[in-house]
Amino acid sequence: MTIPEHYRTVFRIYLRFAVIMLFMGLLTGILFQESAKKTPYSDILPAGVRLETVLYLALLHGHAFLIGVVIPLVTTWMLYLGLALGYAPVGRRPLVIGSWLYLPASVVVIALMIYKGYHFQLGVRNNNLDFRALHESLFFGNHALRAAVYGLTHTSMAVGLGTIAVSFWRSIKKD
Q1: pTM for the complete prediction?
Q2: What distances in angstroms separate CA 38 from CA 47, 112, 121, 124, one per listed residue?
Q3: Is the four-CA dihedral 25, 107, 123, 46 of positive or negative sign?
Q4: How confident is the model over 42-89, as pLDDT tens digits?
Q5: Are 117 and 60 in contact (CB under 8 A)?
Q6: CA–CA separation, 84 and 44 (whole Å)
Q7: Using the 8-state DSSP alphabet, how is residue 126 labeled?
Q8: N or C: which end of the chain has fewer CB within 10 A?
């Protein structure tokens, strides 16, 4: 089985990205644990309020692994398996477009989760227990900016993966 050159390039990029995000996922787990220690249970911060305070940082750890490690590795494995089973390779263009949409957007999504997690964490540490106010103050209270950034990153990730998935689906059709 020969692996096309554009596959080799995509594999190398995705595998490197997965390794970098593996370390990022581990780092976010440490950040969550250390930040949660700074927010102990107390009369002012009972269990439910504390959970809301650390929830976004807790979700960050799993999302970093899923978005940054699992999805790129599964995509790489899927493309390789298609070649191993004798299906036509996916073209260079869909792989490039899908990668350029997915990878940068996934980094921005993780950065947004870090921002939101620490926004809530630091807000509660500064005695602001009004979670609605904390949520409203994200992006300096600019709701349009928040919607645009979240919408563009999530849409870019979805379109990028969709481009690769549809192209792969077409490559494995029956002869």
Answers
A1: 0.88
A2: 14, 21, 9, 11
A3: negative
A4: 666 666 777 777 778 888 989 999 999 999 999 999 999 999 999 999
A5: yes
A6: 59
A7: T
A8: C
